[in-house]
Specification:
The chain has 278 residues and is of the alpha/beta class. The chain is built from 13 helices and seven strands. The strands form two sheets. The chain has a five-stranded mixed sheet. Strands 6-7 form a two-stranded antiparallel sheet. Strand 6 and strand 7 form a beta hairpin. The longest helix is centred in the last third of the chain and has 19 residues. It is elongated. The termini are far apart.
Length: 278
């Protein structure tokens, strides 16, 4: 009887659409190693323990997907099952051996985790960035290949522009992705530790964090005692911010002026350039 390997994966990877029983092989567990392109960095011990108990009682119901390598096999799909099987002290595991390129291996590993919602926002963002760098493709091209909107990918990748401390908070679940996006707007990043402490202590939602950051930024502006801009300049800034989806500042001097457009990553810059070209 045929077995499906992950809901929806066959729509993107027809080469793994169906597997027949005669294709499933028992391979030595010691010859397997994790996927070098695995986007997921953490595997909760309780989750592995629960799966181990299931394997001891029912066995491994769904085979792993692997590809042959010089030193044995690389796990393409099923690293969690592999870890649980090792904990259960199995010597062999059922697997389907596939001939996949590095490119397809990266895409499949990411897509499987995304569909099972196993990744933290930071792991997901880093996986998108790695794919774009390794495959030399744009956010638009990646969105088409993965079935994700370009705006979703852009918003996720922007999280990587946060300070390391904020990234760590998001990765361990102390802050949500929404909190992270709000913190991107904080002008004085030295205030970040105290804000995070306040968020956790007072259980602030994303909207409350946005309001807090807005107030802090206004205080920062007052400290610098910037001269007020005329209404025309403010209106033009508003139009450009809405058009480009990022911060824009117009500065007028005695003889000339300049327009400053904010961007957070190389991909964000590319997105803005494409909008300007249009």
């Amino acid at each position: 009887m045929a077995k499906r390997l992950g809901k929806g994966l066959d729509a993107f990877f027809p080469e793994i659409k169906e597997t027949n029983d005669e294709q499933i092989q028992e391979i030595n567990i010691d010859e397997c190693r994790p996927n070098p392109y695995q986007p997921r960095q953490t595997f909760p011990a309780d989750s592995i323990e629960e799966l181990k108990e299931s394997i001891l009682e029912y066995g491994i119901i769904q085979p792993l997907i692997v590809r042959k390598s010089i030193k044995g096999y690389e796990i393409v799909v099923g690293e969690r099952r592999f870890r649980a099987a090792k904990e259960a002290e199995l010597t062999t595991i059922p697997a389907v051996i596939k001939d996949l390129t590095d490119e397809r291996m990266m895409e499949l590993a990411l897509l499987e985790n995304l569909q099972r919602e196993d990744l933290t926002p930071i792991e997901e963002a880093q996986a998108y960035k790695n794919l774009m760098n390794e495959l030399n493709i744009t956010q638009e091209e990646l969105s088409k290949r993965l079935g994700k909107s370009r705006s979703h990918i852009a918003n996720m990748v922007r999280l990587l522009a946060l300070p390391k401390q904020a990234i760590a908070y998001i990765n361990n679940g102390e802050l949500s992705m929404g909190h992270g996006r709000a913190l991107l707007g904080l002008k004085d990043q030295n205030l970040l530790p105290s804000i995070v402490k306040k968020i956790n202590k007072e259980k602030l939602n994303v909207r409350q964090v946005e309001q807090l950051i807005h107030k802090l930024n206004k205080k920062q502006v007052k400290k610098k005692e910037k001269p007020k801009k005329d209404v025309f300049i403010q209106e033009r800034e508003t139009v450009l911010r809405e058009r480009l989806g990022t911060g824009v500042h117009i500065r007028r001097g005695k003889r000339k002026g300049k327009i400053e457009i904010e961007f957070y990553t190389d991909d964000d810059l590319e997105r803005i350039i494409q909008l300007l070209e249009k």
